[in-house]
Amino acid sequence: MDRNYSMRIFICTHGRFGRQLTYDNLPESIQQRVEFVIQQREAYLWEDSGLRTLVVPDEIRELPSTREWLHHHTAKKIVMLDDDLVFSVRRTDDPTKFRRPLATDLESLFTEIEDSLDDYAHVGVSHREGANRNTDQYLEAGRMMRILAYNTDVTKAEGVISNRVPDVEDFDVTLQLLKKGYPNRILNNWVHNQGGSNQEGGCSGYRTPETHDRDVRIFASLHEGFVKVVKKKTKDNWCADENGERTDVVIQWKRAFKFGQANLLDQRAILSKAQ
Fold first, then answer.
1. Spatial separation of the C-alpha atoms in residues 192 and 210, rounded to whole Å
2. Helices then strands (H, E): number in the chain?
3. What is the CATH code for 8-207?
4. Interaxial angle between packed helices 169-179 and 63-73, expressed in degrees from 0 to 180 and rounded to the nearest 10
5. Would you state the pLDDT for residue 199?
6. What number of CA atoms fall less than 13 Å from residue 191's CA on the CB side?
7. What is the per-residue pLDDT across 180-222, written as a single tens digit (0 to 9) for each?
8. Strands 34-38, 8-12: pairing kind
9. Higher confidence at residue 3 or residue 105?
10. How far, in whole angstroms, is CA 135 from its chain's centroid?
11. Is 122 exposed, middle or buried (0-12, 13-18, 19+ CB in 10 A)?
C-alpha cells in the first residue's frame, strides 16, 4: 500500500472500548488509517490506547448526529464503519460462496471504495445475507448499511441530512441521494456481517421498539411512494413487539433513482429552454 490515500476511515463507537470487532478484523495496514470517532465523555478511556481518535463536540450523543458532523467537518472522501463487523470475500472457484479475507483482500476493498468515490456520491459494500444469489461485481441503486462511504462535496452541496430519522438514517441518506439522481455503487465481491444486533453499547442506549417504530413511520412519510411500512417476524428482541414482530420497510430503491434521473432531465430541459 505505497500510494497516497485521501479517504479517511472512521469507526464510530460508543460504550465499547476494548471491544472493537471491526478493527480487530482489519489488517494492520488499514488499522493504521482508522480513526475511532468517540464522544467527549469517553475520551479519557482512549488516552493511553495508542489508537487514533477523533472526539466529536460534547452535544453530539447519537450515531446519526455523529455521522452528520463527519460529513461537514472532516474530508471530501469518507467511509464510516460500524464497530461490530465481520468481513468475507467472494470465492473465485465458486462465486456463490465466501471465504475469510486475506490482508490483501481488505486492502483492495478500501482502495476500491476510495476510487469509486471519484465517480459515485455514495458507495457501500454488500451485506452477507442473500449475497450468494447475485454474483455481479457491482450493484447500483440499492441498500447501503454498516459500511457507508460518501463524497461529502456532493452531500453538502445537495443539503443531505443524516440525522432526521435516527433509527434508519442510513436508508434515509441513500434515498435522499437516489431521489436527487445520484446512483450508488455497491461493491459485491466483498461482504460484511454484524457481530450482533443492538449489543451493549453503540445504539442500544437510545434505540427501542418505540423509537424504531416512530422513525420507520416518519421515514416512510418522508419518502412517500418509495417506502412501504410492513410487519415482519424477528429474532431481535430489542425491536420485537408482543407478537414477535418488528416494524420494517419495503423500499423501492431503483424506482427512487429513476425518479431522480427524470427530475434531472426535466431540470436540464427547463434550463435549455431558458437559454
1. 28
2. 9, 12
3. 3.90.550.10
4. 40
5. 58
6. 22
7. 999 999 999 999 999 765 456 555 556 688 899 999 999 999 9
8. parallel
9. 105
10. 21
11. buried
223-266: pLDDT as tens digits: 999 999 999 877 676 666 677 788 899 999 999 999 999 988 76
What is the gyration radius of the CA atoms in the chain, in angstroms?
Answer: 19
Stretch 99-125: mean pLDDT: 98
* Nearest to 176, CA basis, from 223, 229, 119: 223
Q: Kindly tell me if the per-residue pLDDT of 90 is higher than 90.
A: yes
| Residues forming beta bridges with residue 227, ordered by sequence position | 251
**Pairwise CA distance, residues 106 & 89, whole Å:** 9
The shares of helix, strand and coil residues in the chain, as percent rounded to the nearest 5, are 40, 25, 40
CA distances from 262 to 14, 46, 63, 180 (A): 41, 48, 33, 9
Query: What is the C-alpha separation between 131 and 190, in angstroms, rounded?
Result: 9
End-to-end CA distance of the chain: 49
Mean pLDDT of the residues in the chain: 91
pTM of the prediction?
0.91
Closest C-alpha to 257, from 178, 174, 184, 155: 178
Residue 130's pLDDT is: 84
User: Is 172 buried (19+), middle (13-18) or exposed (0-12) by CB count in 10 A?
Assistant: buried
Q: How many C-beta neighbours within 10 Å does residue 97 have?
A: 11
